[in-house]
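Table S2 (text version). Query chain:
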Amino acid sequence: MAPRINTIHDYNQPRQPPAINRNCPGMTSIWPFSISSFSPLGRFSWGDVLRRIGMILILCERTGLEAYFLIILLHSKSGLAFIIWLAMDIVAFVFLAWCLSVIGDAQGDKIVFGARVSRFHFDAFLLFAALVHLLLVMSFGILVYGLGGGTFSAIWMGMWLLFIGVAWVARWEEAGPVSLV
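Corresponding structure-token output:
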């Protein structure tokens, strides 16, 4: 699609810009995603099935660890902290599900800092994230009780930032074909 050239005449006419020219053209509602993004059943390639299983594993591992923290808060008899943590967990679950569905449904190549990022790179990130979360679950006692909670929290927050950044890139428009001219 060729860029539109504006003339002086265009500025004197009241005109509503098309939706594609908005700052966030893909944003039609808050956190749009489909539950079918997580379904490993159906007619998909093996890559799709493995990607969706990885997304489900990440969601289950994070939810399981958050449930463990809620149980600890419940046993400490801190009612207000429990209610606040529960509300934050619900929002975090929905936001993580949105990030994962955006990453899992990413189409086409994106240009990031001059490098072309393809579907393979998003799949590699999901594999990396699933392995990091598996290691977090397996080494939870060592990270929290042995080394202190700081190491676990740093990894946990780092993964949050990575999910947000990768989902942001996944929402970008597809890059055009490579031109050698």
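Notes on Table S2: Residues 48-170 form one domain. The chain has a mean pLDDT of 76.
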